[in-house]
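Hi all, long-time lurker, first post. I run a small reading group and we've been trying to get comfortable going from sequence to structure in the token notation. Rather than ask abstract questions, I figured I'd post a concrete chain and ask someone more experienced to write out its structure so we can walk through it together at our next meeting. Sequence below, copied exactly:
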Amino acid sequence: KRVVQKVAEKYGLVYFGCVSQNEDDHKAVRGYTVSKSQIDDHYCIGTIQDYDVTFVQRNDLVLGLDRKEVRCHWLITSIDLKSRRSLPRFFVGAQAHSDILKASYSQLHQVQLGNTTQYPHKFLSNYFVYAKPQDVINIEWLFPPSAAEIVTGYFADMSFEVENNVLYVYNESAYPTAEKIDKMFENGIWLARYIDAITNADINKEF
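-- Answer (accepted) --
Happy to help. Here is the structure in token form:
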């Protein structure tokens, strides 16, 4: 508890601790991990570098592909994007954590990037992307090879998702540390700025 409280104080976030999605009046953290049975703790909210940020530690029982329940733990940072247009939903994650993700997604499909340009081999070998097939070309515009290369180097233990113009950064961990949270905030803000810069520079691009 003290670890998260100290990080929250460092960034000027307000720490609420455990919150209930059914009873408490708070900004919900959604994304692919949201469910009716989730348990959220260490809830923090505030602004970092002009971005509205929410952090939470979530655990839940998830039904895997083998139909067995698995207890999952996530550290989640949500960042409200400033794009002036509606962005497609997509997820980028490490291959090592794919089973639970595949079980969680019903509307999206695993897709291959590289239709319009070549992506780094290391990224294609170690990460997978979930999206609607018809959105792939636009995702390649939002998340080009230059961004994929940086993600490969700096997001080694993290995955991320864009949904309803909110960026979610995930770390599958039951134990929050200051180093993990710092890295999530730093990488998340960088990626948010990257996506916003692309979308707002070409506001007339058709999706």
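A couple of things your group might point at:
DSSP finds six helices and nine strands in the chain.
The mean pLDDT is 85.
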